[in-house]
Write a structure and sequence with these properties.
With 160 residues, the chain is α+β, with helices and mostly antiparallel strands. The protein contains three helices and five strands; from the N terminus they run βααββαββ. Helices cover 26% and strands 22% of the residues. Helix 1 packs antiparallel against helix 2.
Length: 160
């Protein structure tokens, strides 16, 4: 079992919000998917179904697209034939923001951002889309794989 690595999440101060431990609890769901193309569709459907249940109050199209892109990248670039699962973790933070984490068995770290693909290209825009939606991304390499994370604040704007 891989341990979850917390990331710093900027939560804007809101008036009238209780600061008790129960009000500040992060709601988390994690699950495994087979590292193949079907995982993308299954992860999208899972995110669309579970995000409202986890308390995410924003519109669902952007987070579902982010899940889709991160899982697609893990399937296409991070998984090997020996991998048995991809781990998807959804975390809804007290400020309303969402963290999406995808862990795969890949040992190659993500490279530097690629230049935009030519207009006729059929792929290569995944992380550009994630960033265009207002998400901040990070990644971490471990001995048994890597984790790609995206944080989407409620409303889609990231404090810098």
């Amino acid at each position: 079992m891989r341990r979850a690595i917390p990331i710093w999440v900027p939560c804007p101060r809101r008036t009238g919000l209780s600061t008790t431990a129960s009000a500040a609890r992060v709601r988390v769901w994690s699950g495994e998917f087979r590292p193949d193309r079907r995982a993308v569709r299954e992860a999208r459907a899972t995110a669309r179904r579970l995000l409202p249940w986890l308390g995410y109050r924003g519109e669902l199209d952007a987070p579902v697209l982010i899940v889709s892109e991160l899982v697609t990248n893990a399937v296409e670039h991070g998984s090997s034939l020996e991998d048995t699962a991809l781990l998807l973790r959804l975390s809804v933070h007290p400020c309303g923001g969402l963290s999406v984490e995808v862990t795969d068995g890949g040992t190659t770290p993500p490279g530097p951002p690629a230049p935009p693909p030519c207009p006729e290209a059929e792929s290569g825009r995944g992380l550009f889309l994630v960033h265009a939606l207002g998400a901040r991304t990070t990644w971490e390499q471990a001995a048994t794989g890597k984790t790609m994370r995206a944080f989407l604040p409620l409303g889609g704007t990231v404090p810098r």
